[in-house]
Amino acid sequence: MYLHLGQETVVRVQDIVGIFDMDNTTISKHTRQFLADAEKAGRVVNVSPELPKSFIICREGDRETVYVSQISTATLMKRRKAGIK
Predict the structure, then answer these.
(1) Distance between CA atoms of residues 27 and 7, nearest Å
(2) Cα(85)–Cα(81) distance, rounded to whole angstroms?
(3) How far is 7 from 9, CA to CA, in rounded Å?
(4) Which residue in 43, 47, 69, 85 has a CA-CA distance of 20 to 30 Å to 55?
């Protein structure tokens, strides 16, 4: 099963570690540091040039990727639940 993150980006549901709201989670200095480190390491993929609403952490094997999306966490979770039968 796949989850559409916006634009032309899809990820496998089983690779998703977490879906996080950008406004609520970036209050924490730990989250900001995590995102800054991921950006420096080249592990961040911006799905859209629009204002980001969420970020999704995916792990495939030992590679971790952070996707930044304009789609809200609520919409992503609805899509995820709709795809799982």
Answers:
(1) 27
(2) 8
(3) 6
(4) 85
CA–CA separation, 70 vs 76, rounded Å? 10
Q: What is the distance between the alpha carbons of residues 38 and 22, in angstroms, rounded to a whole number?
A: 15
Domain count, the chain: 1
Per-residue H/E/C for 32-77: HHHHHHHHHCCCEEECCCCCCCEEEEEEECCEEEEEEECCCHHHHH
Other Cβ atoms closer than 10 A to 56: 25
| Domain region containing 19 | 2-83
Query: Encoding tokens for residue 35?
Result: 């995102």
Instruction: Please list the pLDDT of the chain residue by residue as tens digits (85 residues).
Output: 999 999 899 999 999 999 999 999 999 999 999 999 999 999 999 998 899 999 999 999 999 999 999 999 999 999 888 875 4
